[in-house]
Amino acid sequence: MNQNELLRVEELHISLQMDKGSLPVVNGISFGLKKGQILALVGESGCGKSVTSLSLMRLLGKGLEISGGQILFRHPESGDVTDIAALGSNDKAMRKLRGDQIAMIFQEPMSSFSPLHTIGEQIMEVVRLHRKVSKLDARKRAIELLDKVGIADPAQAVDRYPHEFSGGQRQRAMIARALACDPSVLVADEPTTALDVTIQAQILKLLKDLQQEMGMAIIFITHDLGLVAQMADEVAIMYMGNVVEHGATRAIFKQPQHPYTKRLLQAIPRLGVIQDKLQSIEGSVPNLFERPVGCAFNTRCTEQQRDACQQRLPALRAIEPLGLVAQQGTAAVVSNDVGVVNSSDVIHSVACHLIHTEAVA
Amino acid sequence: MIQMIIKRMVSALAMLTVLSMIAFVLIQLPPGDYADAYAGKKSQGGAVMTAEQIEEIRDKLGLNEPLYIQYINWASDFVQGDFGYSWEYHRPVIDVVAERMPVTLTLVFMTLVFTYFIAVPMGIYCALRQYSIGDHAISLLGYIGLAIPNFMFALILLYLSSVFWGTSAGGLFSPVMQDAPWSWEKFKDMMAHIWVPVVVLGTAGTAFQIRTMRATLLDELNKMYVTAARATGMDERKVIMKYPVRMALNPVVSTLGWELTNIISGAPIVGVVMSLPDMGPLFLNSLLNQDMYLAGALVMVYCILVILGTLISDLLLMLLDPRIRMGAMKA
Question: What positions belong to coiled-coil segments (chain A) (predicted)?
Answer without folding.
Answer: none
